[in-house]
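Ticket #4471: structure output looks truncated?

Reporter: J.K.
Steps to reproduce: submitted the chain below (429 residues) through the standard prediction queue, then opened the result file.
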Amino acid sequence: MRTREQRDLAGWLLLVSVGLLVTWLAVRGGARLGTASAPFLGSYRFEVSPLSLAAPAVAVAVLAFTRRGLMDRLPWWAISAGSALGLLTWSVALALVDGTAGLTRSLTPDSYLGDLDDVGDDPIGYLKSFTTRNAEHTIATRGHPPAPVLFLWLLQRAGITEHFGFAMVVTIIGAMAAPLVLAAIRDASGETAARHFAPVIILAPYAVWLAVSMDAVVLTIAAAMTVAGLKATRHKGWQAALWALGAGLLLGVAALFSYAAAWLGLSIVGIYFARRRAALNVFSGIGALVPVMGASLLGFTWTDGLLAAYEDFATHIEPDRSALWWGLISMCALLIAAGPPLVASIRKLRNTPGWPFLLGGAAAVVFSVLAGLARGGIEHAWLPYFPWLTIAVIAPEIQGGEPAPPPLLLVAAGALTAIVIEAVLLTPW
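Returned output as attached by the reporter:
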């Protein structure tokens, strides 16, 4: 087993090396990248402080905990709660390399917080003006529907006014994705597989975005959607219909946070297909339309917003960014963010009953690359898909076999990657 892990790690290192070489060639060749941030044209720094020791300490603790076999012995509720706490601690520890500013670097006046003043005391008016303002190129450059800003507005109304408070709420919500993902794996592949996946998601390299991106909220909403879809297949009659309706509602809410999140609906379709419950698609479809149609009645038309955002991208960003180069660079970013477990997951894809989970995430990534949308900035929006792309790492080596043990070597390499990214790069992509 260790030999296979070593081969998977070697394969990942080779692919990442090729990706970094392509990036270097793009920069040296003067390709139209349209960005001056690291690891492209930006500057670098190596920063070591007492806070820099937090992330390595968390990684060592989780790896030691797993190596001693405690993941197999503790009660399930402890694994579930511990995964949320572990991912939260890991994400915050990575961000704290830059101090508290590491938690708030995405909540700047020119991003979501800049729109809070536009909401004021009239969120309905904000919804009504959003699509029109998109067309005027004042909001669409951010490429998101109105839900992220309205979510921050609600937090503000609840008494959270500091940037640090916003960041911690977003990070805590994102960390709640860990027990939800484990619950989905437990339902599809059994409890042993879920326990063995726990260290993979706790020490995920993509946690560098969990503490700095509103996509962390989408990650948790999408994970809850997947669990609801699985629950629907475990019931009959009206209970199944309610769970399926709930899965659709969560999908619709996710789509109001991120346009790309709509692709996650394919995961639900795959689950229903695999378990021969195709009729549940009707209820999930109705559920997904409820939030979107509700927003439309209040003034925001989802399709108009999507088209306006793409038009703005095509006008202001696309001419400066090469689709060919960014397609290759985006794959490198994907490899680094998902970490070495991605290679093992791809290799063992046929052996996992959790293949529907990969369907939505993989489709979204492939579409964004082929459509030329993945040209810097959208890669962090892949955060809701990363956990599902790596779930087959704990699949058996042969179909129907026992789940693989926790891939500690791959997890350790991924954790080291995240630590290096935060310590060396000026900004994480």
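Triage note (M.O.): checked the attachment and the full token line is present. Confidence is low (pLDDT under 50) at residues 134-141.
Status: closed, working as intended.
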